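Below is a filled-in request sheet from our internal design queue. Each sheet records the structural input a requester submitted and the sequence that came back. We keep these sheets so that new team members can see what a complete request looks like end to end.

REQUESTER: design group, bay 2
PRIORITY: normal
MODE: inverse folding
CHAIN LENGTH: 174
BACKBONE (tokenized):
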């Protein structure tokens, strides 16, 4: 097995919500007080509110820890971006959501992905145009955590290239 053949496993994902366009208008005077919620599994982060705008720009990021990526963790590897309108009275209003399967995105073999994602309703239907959101998604790897993942995998042989970087560091010190 060569170094180029080894599978690369991310331990976290950094999500940046850059901006949105063509959002449904829920506020007065033809604008929104929009914010976005980023969620992976039970971890949630919210952007600030972009007041009185049609195409909000946030440029805000959040990082999420990922389990060892494989098909059995599909629910824990799904990114939800939920666009909301802040209501001054009553409940905030749902504008739309993007549902991104991080397993599929990672399978494309690029660590950084910037793209527009369509917003759909709560049931995943796209019956009405709800707009779209521009996201930058970057897969990252914490080498210490990743080495523990590598060593815990049963179908992978331990070689010079898959041993923990910490072990190599100790060998260099000694």
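RETURNED SEQUENCE:
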């Amino acid at each position: 097995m060569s170094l180029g053949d080894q599978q690369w496993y991310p331990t976290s994902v950094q999500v940046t919500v850059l901006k949105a366009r063509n959002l449904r208008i829920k506020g007065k005077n033809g604008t929104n007080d929009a914010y976005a919620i980023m969620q992976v599994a039970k971890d949630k982060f919210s952007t600030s509110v972009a007041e009185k705008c049609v195409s909000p720009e946030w440029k805000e990021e959040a990082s999420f820890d990922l389990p060892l990526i494989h098909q059995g963790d599909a629910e824990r590897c799904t990114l939800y971006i939920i666009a909301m309108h802040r209501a001054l009275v009553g409940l905030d209003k749902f504008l739309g959501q993007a549902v991104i399967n991080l397993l599929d995105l990672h399978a494309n073999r690029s660590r950084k992905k910037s793209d527009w994602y369509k917003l759909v309703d709560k049931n995943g239907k796209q019956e009405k145009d709800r707009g779209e959101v521009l996201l930058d998604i970057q897969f990252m790897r914490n080498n210490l955590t990743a080495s523990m993942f590598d060593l815990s995998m049963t179908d992978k042989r331990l070689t010079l290239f898959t041993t923990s970087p910490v072990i190599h560091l100790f060998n260099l010190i000694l």
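SHEET NOTES:
- The chain has two domains: 11-141, 142-174.
- Residues 11-141 form a domain with the Immunoglobulin-like fold (CATH 2.60.40.150).
FILED BY: M.R.
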